[in-house]
Structures are given as C-alpha cells and as structure tokens.
C-alpha cells in the first residue's frame, strides 16, 4: 500500500438527532464538534438524522422523517383538485 494516501481511521461518536441515541465506532469521517463519551475520552461527533433507534424497520413504527420539507412539496405539487 502507498503511504500517505489513505484517510485517517479513528474512533468517532454517531448521534441520532431525533432520539439522542449515540454509539461509538470507527470511521474516516471528521467533525469539528466533539463529545465526552462514557469512558471519559473526547471523540469527534457526527450527527445523523436516522439510525437504528429511529428507523422504521428496526423500531416497527412507521413515521415520516422530513428534515427538508420534501414531503410537503410533493403533496402540494400532486394534490388532488
């Protein structure tokens, strides 16, 4: 393998913004935000809209997560008159 071409692989915390569920894993993503984890160390924080704690497949609940108004735009555009 060539040296210096691979991104840094480090531990990061992913946090679901809808349920405040967070988990520690390894990733190449980086963030300016940090969070203090349960082990007392500080890790970069990556915020996500959907995780296993809020995804309908894993929770068994169907709900629409619309962060950018796409559902309302669709309904307005294709509304029955």
Automatic annotation (TrEMBL):
It comes from the Bacteria. Keywords: Ribonucleoprotein, Ribosomal protein. GO terms for biological process: translation. It holds the Pfam family Ribosomal_L31. One of its GO terms (molecular function) is structural constituent of ribosome. InterPro entries: Ribosomal_bL28/bL31-like_sf, Ribosomal_bL31, Ribosomal_bL31_B, Ribosomal_bL31_sf. GO terms for cellular component: ribonucleoprotein complex; ribosome. SUPFAM superfamilies: L28p-like (SSF143800). PANTHER family: 50S RIBOSOMAL PROTEIN L31, CHLOROPLASTIC, LARGE RIBOSOMAL SUBUNIT PROTEIN BL31A. Part of the 50S ribosomal subunit. Belongs to the bacterial ribosomal protein bL31 family. Type A subfamily. Belongs to the bacterial ribosomal protein bL31 family. Type B subfamily. This is Large ribosomal subunit protein bL31B. It comes from Vulcaniibacterium tengchongense. The lineage of its organism: Bacteria, Pseudomonadati, Pseudomonadota, Gammaproteobacteria, Lysobacterales.
């Amino acid at each position: 393998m060539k040296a210096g071409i691979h991104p840094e692989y480090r531990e990061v915390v992913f946090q679901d913004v809808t349920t405040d569920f967070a988990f520690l894993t390894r990733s190449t993503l980086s963030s300016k935000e940090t969070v203090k984890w349960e082990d007392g160390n500080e890790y970069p924080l990556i915020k996500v809209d959907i995780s296993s704690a809020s995804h309908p497949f894993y929770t068994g609940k169907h709900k629409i997560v619309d962060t950018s108004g796409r559902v309302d735009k669709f309904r307005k555009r294709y509304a029955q008159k």
